[in-house]
Amino acid sequence: MTSFYGYEPKSRLFLGTAQYPSPKVLEDAVRAAEVDIVTVSLRREGADGAGQAFFDLINHLGVRVLPNTAGCHGVKEAVTTAQMAREVFRTPWIKLEVIGENDTLCPDVVALVEAARILIEDGFEVFPYCTEDLVIAEKLLAAGCNVLMPWGAPIGTARGLNNEYGLRSLRGHFPDVPLVVDAGIGLPSHAARAMELGYDAVLLNSAVAGAGDPSKMAKAMALAVEAGSLGREADPLDPRDMAVPSTPVFGKAML
Amino acid sequence: MTVLVAGAGVAGLVTALTLAEAGHSVRIVDKAAGFGPSACSWYAGGMLAPWIEAATQDAVVKRRGVTAIDWWAERVPVTRNGSLVVAPGRDSSELARFARRAEAFEWLDGEAIAALEPDLAGRFSKALFFADEAHLDPRQALVALQARLAVRGVTVEYGADLAAEMKRHGGTVIDCRGMAAKPELPALRGVRGEMLIVRCADISLSRPVRLIHPRFPCYVVPRGDGHFMIGATQYESERRGPVTVRGTVDLLNALYALHPGFAEAEVIETGADLRPAFPDNLPRVVSDGRVIHANGLFRHGFLLSPAVARDVCEVMDGRQAEFSHVPDRQRQSA
Hints:
The structure holds 2 protein chains of 2 kinds.
Chain A: E1 13-16, H1 23-33, E2 37-41, H2 44-47, H3 52-59, E3 64-68, H4 75-89, E4 93-96, H5 109-121, E5 125-130, H6 134-143, E6 149-150, H7 164-173, E7 180-182, H8 188-196, E8 201-204, H9 206-209, H10 214-233
Parallel strand pairs in A: 1-2, 1-8, 2-3, 4-5, 5-6, 7-8
Chain B: E1 3-6, H1 10-21, E2 26-29, E3 47-48, H2 50-53, H3 59-73, E4 83-86, H4 92-101, E5 106-109, H5 110-116, E6 126-130, E7 134-135, H6 138-151, E8 156-157, H7 162-168, E9 173-175, E10 189-199, E11 209-211, E12 218-224, E13 227-231, H8 245-258, E14 266-277, E15 284-288, E16 291-295, H9 301-316, E17 324-325, H10 328-333
Parallel strand pairs in B: 1-2, 1-9, 2-8, 4-11, 9-16, 15-17
Antiparallel strand pairs in B: 3-7, 4-6, 5-6, 10-13, 10-14, 11-12, 12-13, 15-16
Helix pairs in contact in B: 1-6, 1-9, 3-9
């Protein structure tokens, strides 16, 4: 069982909590998918206690909270937001997100490494939202990250795994580091594919929150993550060109 | 026996008028010094758009909301020109998705859009038109409701000490205080919203236009005389205080995406307040002895207040209603 900073979740699906039609719909989705970890955006709006009513609803879900620095654009902003998150949710965990480009919401990986270094020195357990770049991954690990969260595709695009080769090579280079595909998932098949590539978990939000029936999609994603994970463990066949009959025909009696 | 309505926002005024029309003797009290921005309905968009809401909200919002159009139109000035939903070119697939979930609309092409809204000619190649929807000017509507109440001898008693009035009153109290009722309704939370009003002589719209945008969905409601209301951001935050730069930028970006001609518009007003909401974002009518709380209308103050007022009447008569809800502390002990 993969451990994320010492915690072994039963479900390999992590769910974001933004953009649901109501907190009740969010709660139903969390229950339907039976997730153990949810991420929460600590918007600046909520940092001064003003978001407490919503955070109380999140805490009431009884699952582990991974606060995030969604929407932060620089090292200082991300570090400050992480520190506020630690106070609000009383956890050393932080999903570190530093946005570098506004159209794709592409992570600013240089600032990410710097912010991760500062936060880890300060005692945080950092889940960095990164790209599939191997060198940046090395630097994040050197800074003290014990988990990597490369994007599947830009946030909210529902495009699935944009660079499967990149994700596969990341898995290959870091066989022992917990890897989570974060963002860009739209369909259950995308989530299953991430697990088939050997990823340890999938983090998604919009695909469920924006679905016509969030609970049903949450359940579908949970099943897909489990299916992909089981399929990976079962040592699947490799694709081949020549057909192989599942029942031998040679020598069969022809009547 | 006189019924006391506490709070003269949209929920309180609609409830008071509904009760008065049903033959009850009514008093309505409010803590504010006079009619103005102390009620969050002051900042409302005033769209009566049940079929648009069906795309993103619980089905009950549409079902209970459709009757609001006639209710308002019989009592205050309402514009029944329908509403439009558009999306910027690269988000046009979002429009198809929205259409799958909404109801009672027709697809328009660019020519049909231009026929309805000449100033949007050439801006969008597709739109959804909800012909049966309507809109009103919230401030004008609330003034008109007060005039209707005055005809029945009911005047809002401003500057009242609500706690004292509610305690002193011998009969039924309908608590429509919104966020101020949070101590009695612990499940209630505030959802911050921000809005702007601009004045633009160059552009004219005859109906609300909703812009679907993956990041900043917003709507623009014509208020007449070149004025437009732009709403509304939505944050899970109970912070009060002025609009933020981010909220303003998001709303203005969306306005500019609707028509670049708005670039020269003057920003007349900015406003921010909290929408009272329960965890399912649906209203509740909570009977707690002598006090009936009508609250949690979220972003549907004008769309759902007539239905909530009807449910208040049902609950006063001892019946269950759709929005009936038992008090939180009873649920906890149950």
